[in-house]
DNA sequence: CGTTGTTAGTTACAAAATCAACCGTTAACT
DNA sequence: AGTTAACGGTTGATTTTGTAACTAACAACG
């Protein structure tokens, strides 16, 4: 009984959010239940796993997460021995973050799950939809 | 200096989230600064504005928001006289939610902004990308 | 040097989301 | 009717996030 020609399902910010939430749900269960991680935490883990050692600032630049979120995620990951922090000698404000062996292991485990999970999502879409979707999302993610 | 063939930018849950966040940012500013609303609140407002009178439960079913979020959003919107609540005579557990004149006005104002904003986002994409994107997102949003 | 500004990261406090337990009402079954 | 379960919605405690103000280290400029 629509009273209106505007449709929430066509409003991109809403639609994107619905899709994002629906499609993170199962993966969230894994990193949460199996590793007790938060979204921020697996993101930091993945940045280090994929790109190798970097600083918190650099993770922020790439992920657009706020520095306080990252700071707290790093703290927790360090407590749990998933990463180590080493202050840089030339610039003692910054720290290099490295995954420990344990961190690498968790990363590889989660990565495998992520890949399978992503493949499962892709199956819901045609090849063309997959290609165009990812392309379009990248444009939108850039912001501006 | 990737060490890895897995790319975060190809992982749909991540990519969707990046796009969702980037694309809600400016709209958020509007409903927050102009109406002091939370995301949950404009969503409730929009559901009532678009589809007309309904119960909190029905909003939850459609939006997949948790009932506590909705309950609190409804409270705030009622306090601010954007909607009224009427308990159903045949089932006194439930309430019918209706926008007040003031609520309708806020809705129409925000809807106009949303439409312009959505149009702006669409301009970043080709027609084909727009069509395929929305189609694909709807599939993903359904979950399962 | 000394002041001022910037950067990398942390902390404290307020705002919001989550989770479980809770009411009052209705439905289902005996 | 009497008991139990389910429903629609609320509340309170805890967790997580967001915002601002804060270190400590460095850089730039006089």
Automatic annotation (TrEMBL), chains A, B:
InterPro entries: HTH_MarR-typ, Metal_resp_HTH_trans_reg, WH-like_DNA-bd_sf, WH_DNA-bd_sf. The keyword DNA-binding applies. Pfam families: MarR_2. Residues 9-142 form the HTH marR-type domain. GO terms for molecular function: DNA binding; DNA-binding transcription factor activity. The keyword Transcription applies. Keywords: DNA-binding, Transcription, Transcription regulation. This is DNA-binding transcriptional regulator, MarR family. The lineage of its organism: Bacteria, Pseudomonadati, Pseudomonadota, Alphaproteobacteria, Rhodobacterales.
């Amino acid at each position: 009984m629509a009273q209106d020609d505007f449709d929430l399902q066509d409003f991109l910010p809403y639609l994107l959010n619905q899709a994002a939430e629906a499609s993170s749900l199962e993966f969230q269960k894994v990193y949460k239940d199996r590793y007790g991680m938060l979204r921020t935490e697996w993101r930091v883990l993945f940045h280090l796993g994929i790109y190798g050692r970097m600083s918190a600032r650099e993770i922020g630049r790439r992920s657009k997460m706020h520095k306080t979120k990252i700071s707290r995620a790093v703290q927790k990951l360090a407590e749990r021995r998933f990463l180590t922090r080493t202050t840089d000698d030339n610039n003692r404000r910054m720290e290099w973050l490295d995954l420990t062996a344990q961190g690498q292991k968790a990363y590889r485990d989660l990565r495998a799950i992520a890949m399978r999970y992503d493949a499962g999502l892709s199956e819901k879409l045609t090849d063309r939809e997959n290609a165009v979707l990812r392309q379009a999302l990248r444009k939108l993610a850039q912001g501006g």
